[in-house]
Amino acid sequence: MPRANTRGFFLASGRLRPNALSEGQEGKMGKFAFVFVAVAGLFLSGCGYNNIQTTDEQTKAAWSEVLNQYQRRADLIPNLVKTVQGYAAQEQTVLLGVTEARAKVGSIQATPELVNDPAALAKFQAAQSQLTSALSRLLVVTENYPQLKSDQNFRDLQAQLEGTENRITVARNRYIQAVQTYNLAIRRFPSNLTAMIFGYKTKANFAVENEAAISKPPSAPTPARRSTAWTRSAESCWQRSGYGHPMAKACCCWPPTCSRWTRSRGR
């Protein structure tokens, strides 16, 4: 009776056994990875990761709107300067100031990364403020030229400029609120730990213009003083009245009271 070939069986079983163990290990590793991802997702969600992403995107959108409105204003300036120059060519100083301020604004690279650099944002804000001041001086000068103010093209440009300035104010306010929300999100516990791990930092915000002047308390109004000649005249009048009736002093210091005083004395 031939002997059974058990060697092949054991080799086959030997090759099958490691494969069976490997498949079991892979199954356990897959389950472990799934559990790890689920726990990590819950951890990040609970630690404000999603909130940081949301507020960061809102800040970027608000900054884009600020740049959009500033660019809209810059696009109006060439036509405005050209129109004013046609009626007030002698106002070269004011016109040149507007042109130079616009060129300075255009030289600044307003990238999304600019909001992460306080010094760069301050430089950008200073350039925009300089342009605002130059435009204000230009509009003041136009008050001296009635023909310019009656020009239809100038009136249209002025209306567009005023509307753009209002949009800039609204866009800046929205950006300020968005940055405030984002900065609070990455500073509060426990989301500050998440921000630290992923490298999120606070963003720069617009500063209050003329902050030093605004922070000063209002000065008390200076009381009005009468001139020396008027004071001497009132004193002389009172002396001539003999320092008598109290109304005499009021009459000398404030003549409108004289009629009432004379009527009371039957004069």
Describe this structure in words.
With 267 residues, the protein is mainly alpha-helical. It has two domains: 49-209, de novo design (two linked rop proteins), CATH 1.20.1440.20; 236-264, no CATH class. The chain is 76% helix and 0% strand. It has eleven helices and no strands. Helix 2 (49-87) runs antiparallel to helix 3 (92-106), helix 2 runs antiparallel to helix 6 and helix 10 (246-253) runs antiparallel to helix 11. The longest helix is centred in the first third of the chain and has 41 residues, at 6-46.
What order do the helices and strands follow? HHHHHHHHHHH
The CATH topology label of the largest domain is de novo design (two linked rop proteins)
**Rg on CA atoms, Å:** 40 Å
Percent strand equals under 5%
Intertermini distance: 165 Å
**Helix count, per DSSP?**
11
Overall pLDDT confidence? 76
CATH C-level class of the largest domain: Mainly Alpha
**Biggest beta sheet summary:** none
Tell me the name of the CATH homologous superfamily of the largest domain. Answer: LemA-like domain
State the low-pLDDT regions, or none.
Answer: 8-18, 34-44, 211-215, 220-224, 226-230, 259-263
How would you briefly describe this protein structure?
With 267 residues, this protein is mostly helical. The chain has eleven helices and no strands.
